[in-house]
Amino acid sequence: MVDAPASPAGGGAADAVRRGGPATLGPVTWLRAFGEVVRSGLTIEETRLEPLLALRTAAGVAIVVGPALYLVSPAFAASAALGAFSAGGATFQRTWRPRKVIALGTGAGLGLSTFVGYLAAGHLVTFLPLLAVWAFAAGMAWAAGSTAGIVAATTVGSMLVTVTLPTSVGRALAHAGVIALGGVVQALLILLFPIRRWGAHRDALADGLAAVADYARRLRQDPAAPFDPEPLMTARDAAAVTPSQARTRPRVLHGPRGLAERILPVVATLADPDVGAPAQGPGRDRARELLGAAADVLDAVARAIRCGTPVEVPASSTEVLRLDEEDKVLEGPARKAAEQLVELLGEALEVAGSGGAAGKAATAPGTARARFLVRPTMFRLLRVAFRAVRHELRWDSPVFRHAVRLAAVATLGYLIAAWLPLGHSYWAPLASVMVMRPDFHRTYARAVGRLAGTAAGVALATAMVRAVGPDAHVFGALTVVSAGLSYTVIRTGYAYSQCFTAAYAVFLLGMGGETWDQTVPQRVVLTLLGGALAMLAYAVFPAWETPRLPGRLADWLAADGRYSAAVFRNYAEPTPQHRADMRRALLASRRARAAWQEAYDRAQREPVRPRGLTTREAQNAQDALEGFGRTAMVMESHAPRAGGRSVGASERFADALEADTAQAATDVREHRNPDWRRVDEALRGWDGAAAEGSPARREAGMQKRALEDLATAVSRTPLERDVGSAREEQRVRAAMAAEGDGAGPAHRSG
């Protein structure tokens, strides 16, 4: 009952969108959608394999299974294996909390659900309501994050298995205790044998730096290249620590993220022909050299942070970054940006060279408060989770709809399986619970992967069971080996992971004394039933992202408008408060962009017709908003400091910009055409000819052009929208037919 960690959505056309290339958003047939989920379940990324972690976690399973098998009984050993296996699998989830805390929390949750389930397991009239409520709560746990949702689902699985426990409260307590003990053992192993401590945090920070390096390289050829802030957002999530974590975090993880944030607008400014290096000539060539050298330095810093090794920068890159007084190729703002870039890269090299030792976080001058992003402790996290769950308690929430589906499928699957003359009725709802996700693609990918993996794993394990004969000790050893292989591919290749998980279950039941002919046919049939119910539930009660795209785009537009307005207000009155407002607005803009991108990625895998936005409209609107946000980012890089010279007309433009983008967001949601009257009036009222040459006035004009591009992308009459959607569907069908994908007439689901 372990599941693969949630991985960031993306790949294929989504990656093309992030790179600025073409993408396909539009009608996807059910056949093609199934093809996508099959490919995703059978793909293994070697870079995501962690064999040492798998070995340590499998050792945890062996430590609890061996003594329980020799000293108590095979049934007791099976309970011990359940807790250790599930708690170990939870530690592979992508989370920034210590793995030992995740193992302990999972073990405690499994033990509690086991005992509570036993108390109600005697009668359907008590067990089914408890199962429905527990499954609904597990579905709502996704509001607190994917790790919480997946761990909560494992507790539902543990509750379902309680029907096989002995009919004694004392023995049920003992089984619940040994299940929780599995989490304790895994936590102790993590404590005693640490593997790449802070490794996930190092990877997140290195990925952020590498993303800025890649951006600098792309700017050499395309000064208007878009930047996907997701790696920097992930690095910021990883940078949030509890006070106890802050005391042991390596020094090298303290500063580079902030430097990457500061380097990002500087390289964009240097590459921009309007405010940086000229579009042609020696100045452009010099800017390209500096951008390439900056990318080399950032990659070197990223490698040093990821591996904990000294920084090694190519000598040629170091030579390119030398800016002396005789170097007159770059002038004005371009020269200033180049000097800023060299200074920031020097700071990055200095921080990366500080080593991997732990140290106290830096403190701001004049204050004793530590300068680190605060992550709530486990006890305070309950309050945060409660607020998140309360926010999702609405009918249109994908999390709420997932919780309703989970509760309905778990109870219905249990009832159907109990009615069938097969026994082990918990296998059907268990399969459903472990594959269901709040979105279509992941639910179907895991359902297909689980079905295929279970069939292959059961066949493999059955052959081995028949070959070795009934031997509990051999089955115990095979259980541990299967668990280790499952952990090895748990981060990638879901079907393969489920193959080894199915083999683990067969060996576990064989260790408990059940023969293969009692368990294998039942498991296959009931797993097929559970997977089919999970897929049917999403088709009957979906939470499609395609209809939500206009709303996600509107949220991004409004957030970008607030960010740009905050930048212009800082030009009007440079104060520390306005700079803080800029930072908060930037983070909100990135969150809105990430929500759009996630919705876009999911929508392109859904077998539904576009609603409100066609492929071309979505692509053009995204390009326009990326240009709008990029202009604000460039402006922020050379915004006046506190006490600097103010630009009075910026305040009026900021007010107009925020008001018009807020109204336009409402118009986009309600499928009306946006307009920019206030922005036009503010630009006309900007101070005369003298203002035309000012950077703020120039950037304001660029912002207006980006907004006009957005309006062009989304403005159509209702008749044009209907015709455009129909043409879009015909175009995608024709493209799929040309590719040989057999895109004939297909039923669409809404």
Key phrases:
single chain, 750 residues, mainly alpha, Methane Monooxygenase Hydroxylase, Chain G, domain 1, 3 domains, 70% helix, 0% strand
Radius of gyration, in Å, reads: 28 Å
Shape: globular
Distance between the termini: 32 Å
Biggest sheet record: none
Structural category is: mainly alpha
User: For the residues shown, what is the average pLDDT?
Assistant: 81
Proportion of residues in β-strands: under 5%
| Domain module count | 3
Low-confidence stretches are: 6-27, 355-370, 719-728, 738-750
Give structural notes:
The protein is an all-alpha fold and 750 residues long. The chain folds into three domains: 331 residues, no CATH class; 154 residues, no CATH class; 193 residues, Methane Monooxygenase Hydroxylase, Chain G, domain 1 (Up-down Bundle), CATH 1.20.58. The radius of gyration is 28 Å and the shape is globular. InterPro entries: Memb_transporter_dom (IPR049453). Keywords: Cell membrane, Membrane, Transmembrane, Transmembrane helix. It is a multi-pass membrane protein.
Short description:
The protein has 750 residues and is an all-alpha fold.
Q: Secondary structure elements and their pairing?
A:
Layout: H1 13-18, H2 30-41, H3 51-71, H4 74-90, H5 99-120, H6 124-140, H7 146-161, H8 169-192, H9 199-221, H10 230-239, H11 243-248, H12 256-271, H13 282-307, H14 315-320, H15 332-352, H16 378-392, H17 398-419, H18 427-435, H19 440-468, H20 472-488, H21 494-511, H22 516-540, H23 549-572, H24 576-603, H25 615-637, H26 649-669, H27 677-684, H28 688-692, H29 695-714, H30 718-738
Main location: membrane
GO cellular component, one term: plasma membrane
Domain Integral membrane bound transporter: 413-536
